[in-house]
Design goal:
The protein has 454 residues and is α/β, with parallel strands linked by helices. 23% of the residues lie in helices and 17% in strands. The protein has ten helices and 16 strands. The N and C termini lie far apart (85 Å). The N terminus and C terminus are likely disordered.
C-alpha cells in the first residue's frame, strides 16, 4: 500500500511538472520579443550569435509572446502576400509557392508548435518600415483579412508558409504607406476568430510620440489586446524617461482608459535589447527594469515589456531573461482581457532612471535588416529579398554599402548575378528595424516585370 501511494504521489508530481500555464494577456509581467529579422547579424560578424530558428528562444519561460517579423508585402505576385525572415527563411534562399513570392517556411511549423506548447503565443507582424502596402477600400481590406486568416491563422489555403502551424494572431507594425481601411481588415479577423476554438490576439507597435502618425486612426477604431509602444528612436525614448516633458507613458495609459475600444488593452514598454538594436534609446537591463517597475506601480494598463529583438537579447547576456526576472510576478494582477468584438494630459509623475539590481537546424545566408545612422552608410536600409530595386539604389548587406547596377529583385549583393557594386565597408551604423529607403518599393512587387529592366 505505501508503495502504491508513493507511486501515485510521484505520478502527480510528474504531471504537475509537465503542466504549462497558457498565455495570459491580463498579466502585467509579460515579455514580448520580436523574432525574424536577425538584428544582431546586421552589425556583427560572429555568426554563432546570429538569429536561430524560433524554438531556440522557447527553451525557458522568459519570453511570453513572439511577433514574427515581417510580412512586409501585402499584394505580391498572384495577389499573395510575402514574408521575409532574414537568415531563416526568405524569397532568395527558400523555395516559393508556385506563382507567388511567398517562401515555403514549413520547416518552422514544429518550432512554432513547440513554442505554443510552452504556453507562448506566436503572431505574424505585418508591416515593418519596408512595408508600404495599403488598402484602397474596406472591401479590399476585408478580403485581405480572409487571406491572412487562411494563410497564417485558422483557415485553409494551398499557400501556408508555416505548414500545419496555426499562429495566434496578428501584429500591426505600420511605419509607412497609410492605415486607411485597416479597421475593416482587423474587424474581418475578429469576425473570423469569433467562432474559433482557440483564442486569437490583435496587437500593434506604434512609435512613442502620441498619437502615433500611422496607427492612431486604427487604434481608435478597433479593439486591440496589447500595444507594444516603441520607446526608442524618438524624443520620448527610454533614455529620457527621467524627463516628464519627454516620457509619455501616461498619455498611452490615458488613451487605454478613455479612448481605446477595449478598455482592458495592455500597454507595453518597447525597448531595444542591445545598444546595437536601435539608433537611440537603449538603457541597460537594471535601468529598464527600474523604469518598468515604477511604471507598473503607477499605471494599471501596464502589461509588460517588448524587446527588439531576440537575436540581440540573447547576445546581450540574455537581456530578455534579466528583464523577465525583474518584472516577474506570482499571480494575475488585473481582470481578464479577452479579445473583444468591436462595435460598429498633463504628466504628474517623474520616473527615475537610477539603476537598481536585478536579480531544428536551417542554415542560410544572413540578410540582416538595419539602417545606418552615421558614416558612409548613413540613411541606407538593409537589402531585403522580396523588395525590387532600381539602378542606383543603395543598400546595406553584411556590413557593406552596395549600389544596384540596374533593376534587381531577389539577387543577393555580392552574388553570382552581379547586380550590385560593393561600395565598401560601412564605417559605423546602429542596427534597427528597416526605415525609409525601401518603403515605397515593396508596394510595387506585384508588378515585377518578367525580365530585368535596365
Amino acid at each position: 500500500m505505501p508503495s502504491f501511494w508513493l507511486a501515485s504521489l510521484l505520478s502527480a508530481l510528474s504531471l504537475g511538472a509537465l503542466q504549462v500555464s497558457a498565455f495570459d494577456n491580463s498579466r502585467s509581467d509579460n515579455l514580448a520579443v520580436y523574432w525574424g529579422q536577425n538584428s544582431y547579424g546586421a552589425t556583427h560578424s560572429d555568426t554563432a550569435n546570429w538569429q536561430k530558428t524560433l524554438s531556440t528562444y522557447c527553451q525557458d519561460d522568459s519570453i511570453d509572446a513572439f511577433p514574427v517579423a515581417f510580412l512586409n508585402v501585402f499584394f505580391g505576385p498572384g495577389g499573395v502576400p510575402s514574408i521575409d525572415l532574414a537568415n531563416i527563411c526568405s524569397t532568395s534562399n527558400d523555395p516559393l509557392f508556385p506563382g507567388t513570392d511567398m517562401p515555403d517556411c514549413s520547416f518552422l511549423a514544429s518550432d512554432i508548435q513547440f513554442c505554443q506548447s510552452k504556453g507562448k503565443i506566436v503572431t505574424i507582424s505585418l508591416g515593418g518600415a519596408t512595408g508600404a502596402a495599403s488598402f484602397t477600400s474596406d472591401d479590399q481590406a476585408s478580403a485581405f483579412g480572409d487571406t491572412i486568416w487562411n494563410t497564417f491563422l485558422g483557415g485553409t489555403s494551398s499557400v501556408r508558409p508555416f505548414g500545419s502551424a496555426v499562429l495566434d494572431g496578428i501584429d500591426l507594425d505600420i511605419e509607412g504607406g497609410g492605415t486607411a481601411h485597416f479597421a475593416a481588415f482587423v474587424n474581418r479577423i475578429r469576425t473570423l476568430a469569433s467562432g474559433a476554438s482557440k483564442q486569437y490576439y490583435v496587437t500593434a507597435a506604434p512609435q512613442c510620440p502620441f498619437p502615433d502618425a500611422y496607427l492612431s486612426t486604427v487604434l481608435n477604431a478597433v479593439g486591440f489586446d496589447a500595444v507594444y509602444v516603441q520607446f526608442y528612436n524618438n524624443y520620448c525614448e527610454l533614455s529620457n524617461a527621467g524627463n516628464p516633458n519627454d516620457w509619455d507613458f501616461e498619455s498611452w495609459d490615458n488613451w487605454a482608459k478613455t479612448q481605446a475600444i477595449n478598455k482592458n488593452v495592455k500597454i507595453y514598454i518597447g525597448a531595444p535589447a542591445s545598444s546595437t538594436a536601435a539608433g537611440s534609446g537603449y538603457v541597460d537591463a537594471s535601468t529598464l527594469a527600474n523604469i518598468a517597475l515604477q511604471t507598473r506601480s503607477q499605471y494599471s494598463s501596464f502589461g509588460g515589456v517588448m524587446l527588439w529583438d531576440a537575436s540581440q537579447a540573447y547576445a546581450n547576456n540574455r537581456f530578455d531573461a534579466a528583464i523577465k526576472n525583474a518584472i516577474r510576478q506570482g499571480g494575475v494582477t488585473s481582470t481578464s482581457s479577452q479579445p473583444v468584438t468591436v462595435p460598429t494630459s498633463s504628466r504628474s509623475s517623474t520616473i527615475s532612471t537610477t539603476s537598481t539590481p536585478t536579480s531544428t537546424s536551417h542554415s542560410t545566408t544572413a540578410t540582416p535588416t538595419t539602417t545606418a545612422t552615421s558614416g558612409n552608410c548613413a540613411g541606407v536600409s538593409a537589402w531585403v529579398a522580396n523588395v525590387a530595386y532600381n539602378g542606383g539604389d543603395t543598400v546595406i548587406y553584411n556590413g557593406h554599402l552596395w549600389t544596384a547596377k540596374w533593376w534587381s529583385y531577389g539577387d543577393v549583393p555580392g552574388g553570382a548575378a552581379g547586380d550590385w557594386t560593393d561600395s565598401g565597408a560601412c564605417t559605423s551604423f546602429a542596427a534597427a528595424k528597416p526605415t525609409a529607403h525601401s518603403a515605397a518599393m515593396s508596394a510595387s512587387v506585384a508588378n515585377i516585370p518578367s525580365t530585368p529592366v535596365a
